[in-house]
Amino acid sequence: xxxxxxxxxxxxxxxxxxxxxxxxxxxxxxxxxxxxxxxxxxxxxxxxxxxxxxxxxxxxxxxxxxxxxxxxxxxxxxxxxxxxxxxxxxxxxxxxxxxxxxxxxxxxxxxxxxxxxxxxxxxxxxxxxxxxxxxxxxxxxxxxxxxxxxxxxxxxxxxxxxxxxxxxxxxxxxxxxxxxxxxxxxxxxxxxxxxxxxxxxxxxxxxxxxxxxxxxxxxxxxxxxxxxxxxxxxxxxxxxxxxxxxxxxxxxxxxxxxxxxxxxxxxxxxxxxxxxxxxxxxxxxxxxxxxxxxxxxxxxxxxxxxxxxxxxxxxxxxxxxxxxxxxxxxxxxxxxx
Length: 337
Fold this sequence. Notes:
- With 337 residues, this protein is α+β, with helices and mostly antiparallel strands.
- The protein folds into three domains: 82-122, no CATH class; 127-236, Band 7 domain (Tetrahydropterin Synthase, Chain A, 2-Layer Sandwich), CATH 3.30.479; 241-336, no CATH class.
- Helices cover 49% and strands 23% of the residues.
């Protein structure tokens, strides 16, 4: 098959075949029959390329989309997919082509065009989250194991859905940071009865709520409570601190006993005076000493009470009431002499 310059092909791709014919004439004049055969084969290959219209591309693709849009099943599916249900204690944040459009706050069935619109459902019910137990150092440098529970609810659906990726994880991470900051400002316990983590939980709980609310507002959350669910010394110092607590409790108990003994001795002297009994200073001091010994000692008394200047009466397992009766006897004997 030979091509001549100027030959036209009526099918698509004719200019390519025309150029091939011109190339064949040039090479034929130059005595290159092999090139003519190669161009001949290329022309036949190009000639055999099917028509794009016959393949179903181009205009046929537009026809397929139009057929889908005007399909009898499209409209019912479109209508059914555009209805959205909003339940109680739930709100829907509507995004139109990725941009915030509105917030649906009333429960019920709502029409939202499913083409280009998306609805994010946000629960506004009260929720609780547990802050994992972590080791924190108090203001005295003692390591503590502390855990807490946060109760909150969504106050702004737009911020909860748009401002943060996951408000549940956000409140946990923020709660851990706030818990560490507040616990480090207070001692676990104060021997003088001052403010501490053990005896001021309500006040410290309000401080935790206020500190966490500053962070939670950015995510549209309202913090209702922030309470400890675990608060104790770390295991490595727990035995030593238990001994310390026992020693402090013993000292406080002794102080209370001594205070009571002094008040009881004073009351005994006043009672004797009101009934007309008079004692010399040495006898009064001896009476107070014996009363203090009986009431402060943690064992039963084994004492000896002097009667007059030459005799003594020995008694065992006397109580405070027995001492009072004995001194009344001594006072009566002194008045008779």
